[in-house]
Specification:
8 helices; Nucleotidyltransferase, domain 5; alpha/beta; 5-stranded mixed sheet
Length: 242
């Protein structure tokens, strides 16, 4: 750009800086094509902003395929002006699946590691969440459209536990599920930086993180109502048609 306009590179950098432009960066977004997007959006956001009385709202999901990665050389510790260093090479020791339920009111996370993600494990985790909730409170569960969340065994379990009600987010809208925000934290703070010589070591690290996190949980506060979100989506550029 500097050559094309016959000015210095510093001038171009100053112009970009003054106008908050970052041409070296690219981000991506995805719009949901769910035909019931608006109804599901209003339902879920309504639970965040105005939860029902005598009810508990949980955001539930699974983080599958968490790898127990072991470095090929010992980790070099933090030193003055030098960060902690790990080898790029690693050894895979297997995977685990973390089932998590974020309680929206106070940020407490109920979590369990299971060998895999399937309907049976999901039903078992639902039972754990139900038992951990006082019997005089209704349970509202926000979750995505994974097939295991809608399978016949899950439907039978829901009929046997009428105080539990599911609220599905629109497809391609994981940003609506607050537990995804917590998954980002545990990935950044514990899993990605960890070195695990076995799957049990990985599971122990996750359980330790859960215990420490729940000693001082931090709720994620939803601030935008459905109309604000829909107005923002309406401003997205329309796709070009031939």
């Amino acid at each position: 750009m500097a050559r094309a306009q016959n000015v210095s590179e510093k001038t171009i950098r100053n112009i970009w800086h003054q106008h908050g432009l970052q041409p070296h960066r690219v981000t991506r977004f995805k719009l949901s094509k769910d035909p019931h997007f608006v109804d599901k959006l209003r339902d879920v956001v309504g639970l965040y902003l105005n939860p029902p009385e005598k009810a508990v709202v949980f955001c539930v999901d699974e983080k599958s395929g968490i790898q127990a990665l072991d470095r090929t050389r010992p980790v070099l510790p933090l030193r003055p002006r030098i960060p902690e260093r790990q080898t790029h090479d690693y050894i895979r020791h297997g995977t685990t699946c973390l089932y998590a339920a974020l309680r929206v009111l106070d940020g407490v996370v109920l979590g369990e590691c299971r060998p895999k993600r399937d309907t049976r494990q999901f039903v078992r985790f639902l039972g754990h969440v139900e038992l951990a909730t006082p019997s005089d409170q209704a349970i509202h569960v926000i979750l995505d459209n994974l097939s295991t969340h809608k399978s016949p065994p899950v439907q039978r379990w829901l009929r046997r536990h009428p105080r539990v009600r599911f609220h599905f987010i629109p497809t391609s809208s994981s940003w609506l599920n607050l537990v995804e925000r917590w998954f980002g934290e545990i990935t950044r703070d514990r899993i990605r930086r960890g070195t695990f010589e076995s799957v049990p070591a990985l599971v122990a690290a996750i359980e330790e993180y859960l215990q420490q996190y729940n000693e001082a949980p931090r709720p994620f506060v939803w601030t935008k109502d459905a109309d604000m979100i829909l107005d923002k989506i309406a401003k997205c550029p329309k796709p070009l048609t031939a």
